[in-house]
Write a structure and sequence with these properties.
Helix content is 78%, strand content 0%. By secondary structure, the chain is an all-alpha fold. It has a domain at 1-51. Helix 2 packs antiparallel against helix 3 and helix 7 packs antiparallel against helix 8 (122-138). The mean pLDDT is 89.
Amino acid sequence: MKLYNILIKYRLIIGIIVAILGGVINYTSGFWPGFPFYLIGLILILGHLFFGPLRLIQEYLEAGDMDGAEKILASIKFPGLLYKPIRSVYYTLKGNVAMMKQDFDGAEKHMKKGLDLGMPMKEAEGASMLQMGMLSMQKNDIKQAESYIRAAIRKGLPDKENEAAAYLQMCSIMMNKREFRAAKDFFRKTKALKPTTPQILDQIKQIEKYITRMPG
């Protein structure tokens, strides 16, 4: 796996070197001996341009290394050449990095681009919708937040933690709108999923203190 990651990281440089080597062999020995080097070099260069090094970014995100993640994203000089589903992931990742850095305007811009291109899986689209909803919550745009989060729930989410986060956000929105019966229903759905994320558990504890006192 490490060797494959190294290949992805230096694929463009390796491709250029192999293509140049093909040119040298072509000059000294003829076209056909150099052809395999041309072909391999071309595949590596096109692989970098069309698929990029996005596979490498996951380990940086998991480690919380935003600088490392941004360097990988910055190494993609021509995102417009990326294969469409890969381009969608590229903009979504740019949005995630911006969100972690609390650049909410930048996060919204990039994530909208990702959604407009279409996500490769419905669950991924749902997760992006949820993040857009949370961004709207940060900007205190409750109406837009509700629209995005309801869409996320309809599209489907990748795991129970994301589902719990969506229901909990809906619970907060319903409380804000004073629709207490709906708030309680979303709160029950959140708890039924038995989330384990510390942030979600902390929010559940905070809401639990006064949700039972609500009418409805």
